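TL;DR need structure tokens for one chain.
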Amino acid sequence: MRQRLIDDMNMRRFSRETQRNYLRDIGRLTTFLGRLPDTGTTDDPRRFQIEQQGDGVPVPTMNSIVSALRFFFTHTVDRPDLARKLVRLTHPCKLPVVLSRDEVARLLNATTGLKRQAALSVWRGPARGRGADAEVADCAIDATPVRSRL
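>> reply
TL;DR here they are.
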């Protein structure tokens, strides 16, 4: 079955790195089940995901495992019923760092040279046209110094 999986991935021109990751992830499921994954029940993928989440596996890694298992169940062993039970997790997005008006002014005043000041002015210019300055001023932002390399 391992060779069949490798052949399926080669046929679709998966990179060596992707193949290595898929083989590792399917190996994790095999170890968890204690038997070949193609003989599993429809509850096995769910139990495996709960176990992975309980072990503290990061969301991007869990989603990568889901991709590997979906490919395996759908293309290699023709068990799409098992692939349907796999769930992709949402990855919480980090909010972008937004500077207040005072912080932008301090940044512009701290830069030396006309070229850098012009670059920073252009950099903040598009936000100004959309009225973002009013939104930024209302936000509570940590006033730690910001370093930017231009």
